Fold this sequence. Notes:
Helix 1 packs parallel to helix 2, helix 3 crosses helix 5 and helix 9 (201-225) packs across helix 12. By secondary structure, the protein is mostly helical. The chain has helices at residues 30-39, 63-70, 93-106, 114-124, 128-141, 146-153, 162-169, 172-183, 201-225, 234-237, 242-262, 272-284, 287-300, 308-324, and strands at residues 11-15, 47-51, 157-159, 187-189.
Amino acid sequence: MASPSLFAPDRLFVVPDASSYLPKANKPSAEGAELAGTIAGIDFTSVSAVLTSTVGQEPKKSPLVDAMRAIGAWTWLPCPEPPKPWDQTRVSTGERRVLEGLIRRIAPAVLGHSDAVEALVEAYGFRPRELAQAAARLVISGEITRAAVLAQAGPGESPIKQIEDILIARDGPAAARFFAILAGGGMLVDWHNEPIDAAAWGPLLGGLLGRMLRQSLAVRGHAQRCGLVGELDVRCCAADRWYQKRFKDGILPRLQTDIDASGDSPLGGLSAWQLHRAFRLAAAIKTADAIQALAALDRWGLARLHTRDDAVTTASAIVLKLLSAT
């Protein structure tokens, strides 16, 4: 930062993780104080500095921040938090505000069309650059509609992690949309939102469905042995803060004890959060329906299918039949 550049008059200096230089829980940072003393002697006329960190709120008392403010070089840019695992949404409230603010700057005319804004968020999630470009194209085209957004975005994508959400919620319409996107040429994406090779769709979907169904049956077996069958109720499991209020302190200890005692349970090694998801899935799927779905997986050989169309057709038939069972 202090050394002039021979090649560029203006420079951008980025610190990928400046957490150690900023206070945590109002505790001062020795590294930050030392750096603040050094910064006081640097000429910032041709340097822009960006310090990124995991600090959630703007530091109010920090020698480093004070030093940066003194030379007029401090700007706080809050980063919105990602959705929590229990939010069941792709975009958090904070991320949504950032995206709407971006649309307001780039293409303000779009904000007057709530259906188009909703479609942009659904199609692009928290990918600000792509969403902004799409919003600008809508204004240029003169057609600011949901249909125009979807046409621009293409067939879309179906995250494989949605399968569990769909089964827990017994959401038939969501399942239909999930497989319709794939049937229409969309991509199946993994847990990191990376595209999955079509040849692997059958094995992945077959393995995922088989694992979840076996775990739901195992939950029912453990619940029977430790007197928790009455807790396998869909409405109870969907209650507000059920995980914190009822599962974590009441159900989990008894369930975990029985799992540990069995030694070879399909639920062995799962975290508390994963066990809670398996418990909710067991509440949503009856024993007979789970057994029938497992039999269909074996009979139709979903895990052995390596073509896109066959995998989508077979997986959708099994999932929709499972959801239609009463």
